[in-house]
């Protein structure tokens, strides 16, 4: 989700002790259980999803701006090309303001996704982008700037947080409420830990412990994203029921990552890929992921207020459309950015 370059030399030095790492809680799924779960699903593929009318997770989930009509329409476009999974970010601030309403909106969202035959990966915490999430009216998009209004969770307060009582109550309530819900594919507990806070390891360890104690029907995971964060990577591998990861690199580097992660013997799902300007495209990556039986969840579905058609490091101040979109598949009216991409996705999904 943030700028990260992975060099081949780093891949060659990938810590092999990941394979032997031991979980902190006994409720981690066995390799056999994880693979049996994976075998029950068709090839998992889809997109990270936020409706085009929301600039961030709070605008998606708060009562005043929750937009089921747009969610329904845009997930319909996802269904039309064969996507069967979306990855969706929750937010603890939205929960804190209105716990019962938040859960009702999750249930309403899940009913819409299920109508479109789409399962959901829910993400709890997030170490990316803006550090000060607040309830209420959210900022307007800054023209031409990628994810100008996206909010971390819990944000800068993590650095001074004395305990995690409030965060634990949030995680416990959401997972306990939905732990038997077949519309949820997987719980992604923490997006890119270590991206902005040196206290990520503490929260990462705790959220795995909380979730493992609940022992939901759905598997737990936290995606690998930066191979230099060896301490965090060890915690993630040791506690994940299935292996998830992010990769915005070229096909050769991406395949090498897949081959190394498969050494764990568990199912592997890529929960972020596809950045056209970095030679990570549907054409050169998605067929390989299907061949390897690796889940493929690209970043972005519909161009909208998140501005993810713009590259991480290349703003366009006047807000004009970039010649090459960085992420996203559809325009706001449902027409594809590139018809040949949509044709390929439909072909891979037998549509």
Task: Give a quick rundown of the structure.
With about 350 residues, this protein is of the alpha/beta class. Helices cover about 35% and strands about 10% of the residues. It has one domain: TIM Barrel.
Verbal overview:
The protein is an alpha/beta fold. The chain has one domain (8-348): TIM Barrel (Alpha-Beta Barrel), CATH 3.20.20.80. It has helices spanning 8-12, 31-39, 57-61, 68-80, 92-97, 99-115, 165-178, 200-214, 230-239, 251-261, 282-291, 339-348; strands at 45-48, 85-89, 119-126, 184-191, 220-221, 243-246, 268-272, 295-298. It has an eight-stranded parallel β-sheet. It is globular and about 45 Å long. The chain starts with 7 loop residues before the first helix and ends with a helix. It comes from Mucilaginibacter frigoritolerans. InterPro entries: GH. This is Cellulase (Glycosyl hydrolase family 5). Keywords: Signal.
CATH class type: Alpha Beta
Number of structural units classed as domains: 1
Fold-level CATH name: TIM Barrel
**Unreliable stretches:** 3-21
Roughly what is the average pLDDT, rounded to an integer? 93
Measured as a percent range, the helix fraction is: 25-40%
What value does the Rg take, in angstroms? 19 Å
- Give the name of the CATH architecture: Alpha-Beta Barrel
Strand content: 5-15%
- CATH H-tier superfamily: Glycosidases
Major β-sheet profile:
8 strands, parallel
What's the helix count? 12
Q: What sequence of helices (H) and strands (E) makes up the elements?
A: HHEHHEHHEHEHEHEHEHEH
The class by helix and strand makeup works out as alpha/beta
Strand order of the largest sheet: 5-4-3-2-1-8-7-6
Shape label:
globular
Instruction: Quote the distance from N terminus to C terminus.
Output: 29 Å
Number of strands: 8
């Amino acid at each position: 989700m943030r700028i990260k370059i992975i060099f081949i030399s780093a891949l060659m030095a990938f810590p092999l002790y990941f394979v032997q790492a031991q979980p902190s809680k006994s409720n981690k799924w066995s390799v056999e259980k994880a693979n049996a779960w994976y075998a029950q699903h068709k090839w998992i593929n889809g997109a990270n999803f936020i409706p085009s009318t929301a600039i961030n997770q709070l605008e998606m989930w708060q009562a005043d701006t929750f937009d089921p009509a747009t969610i329904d329409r845009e997930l319909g476009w996802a269904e039309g090309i064969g996507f069967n999974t979306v990855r969706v970010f929750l937010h603890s601030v939205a929960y804190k303001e209105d716990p019962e309403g938040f859960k009702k909106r999750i249930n309403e969202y899940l009913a819409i996704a299920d109508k479109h035959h789409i399962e959901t990966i829910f993400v709890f915490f997030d170490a990316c982008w803006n550090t000060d999430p607040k309830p209420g009216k959210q900022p307007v998009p800054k023209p031409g700037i990628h994810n100008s209004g996206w909010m971390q969770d819990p944000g800068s307060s993590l650095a001074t947080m004395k305990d995690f009582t409030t965060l634990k109550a949030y995680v416990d309530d959401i997972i306990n409420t939905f732990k038997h819900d077949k519309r949820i594919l997987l719980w992604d507990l923490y997006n890119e830990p270590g991206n902005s806070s040196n206290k990520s390891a503490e929260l990462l360890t705790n959220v795995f412990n909380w979730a493992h104690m609940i022992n939901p029907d759905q598997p737990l995971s936290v995606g690998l994203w930066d191979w230099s964060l060896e301490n965090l990577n060890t915690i993630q591998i040791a506690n994940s029921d299935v292996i998830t990861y992010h990769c915005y690199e070229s096909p050769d580097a991406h395949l090498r990552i897949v081959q190394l992660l498969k050494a764990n013997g568990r199912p592997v799902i890529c929960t972020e890929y596809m950045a056209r300007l970095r030679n990570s495209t549907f054409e050169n990556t998605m067929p390989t992921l299907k061949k390897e039986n690796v889940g493929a969840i690209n970043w972005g579905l519909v161009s909208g207020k998140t501005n993810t058609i713009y590259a991480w490091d290349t703003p366009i101040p006047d807000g004009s459309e970039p010649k090459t979109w960085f992420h996203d598949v559809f325009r706001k009216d449902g027409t594809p950015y590139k018809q040949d991409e949509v044709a390929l996705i439909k072909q891979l999904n037998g549509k």
